[in-house]
Amino acid sequence: MVLLKKQFFTGLVLCSSLTLVGCSINIGGNSDDEKSSNNDQKSESTSKQSNNDTSNDQSSNNEDNNESGIKNESNITEQQSIAMAMLEPNLESKIVTGDELLSGKYTQTFGAGEKQEQDIDTLELSESPQLNKMKNKPEGMKFYGLNASKGSYATIVGVNKKEVVYIMTQSVINDYNDIKDSETTKILNISDLYSKYKDNRKVANVANKIEFGDSMPSNDDEDTSTLEDDTDSEQSYDSDSSSEEVTRDNVIDKVESYEGETLDTDTYTFKEPEKTDEGKWGFSFEDKDGNLAGSYVIDEDGEVTEYDEDGEEVGSGY
Fold first, then answer.
1. Which domain of life does the UniProt lineage start with (predicted)?
2. In this model, does residue 192 exceed pLDDT 80?
3. How much is the pTM?
């Protein structure tokens, strides 16, 4: 009987021990799972933070990666406005283009059709006090003379916050209204240019090659003696010009000097100059349909007389 009780007691102790061991194992297992779960959460959190940091870095890089160099439309500089205008393809026959400025060379065409390659390192803007006194000019617009021109004319550029204006001229301009609708004046809207070229890297490259030079002389700054000297010089030049022998090579120059602009070869076809029995030079021109549109006769002293299609005199001068 005593032996039976001992066996029962021993079995009870073993069962209790196994139960406690089992509980201990279960408790230990739950603790490891929680640690693993916490580690997974920390790893996921770290990964998300890393992704967020990467995304922020990429966003920052995208903001800084502005190809044109223009921060926004309200902060466009004069050089950037002019640079965008120089990329316009419809101006390439009139002005030195952005691509030509970057290449360092452009072609200039003279009155008689002669072409000559010119070198250019920078486009220099010289503010013109005289032009900035122009009547009826757009508000806030500054006018600059350029150091490079595509033809036998002066190229002027005006710029304000809204527009870039190119003027190709051979004469003095006193009133903006006289030239704003002329074929030799090109007006470009800066907002349109910005929409078109805001992501174009060439804008920054071209703008970096546009510099401000010394202001052009103003007539108000000249003293009387200087004006007299200029007048004498101009009269002497006119005398020399009128006495210059008229030849086939300079006939076109004489006519363009009289017209104040280059001949409109897009609208008319000009015949080759011929010398008459009286020693005068002349040539006619036709529209694109082949109809006679007019003619010019140049005297021996260089005076040009213009006639319409019916042979009626239109005007004359040098």
1. Bacteria
2. yes
3. 0.52
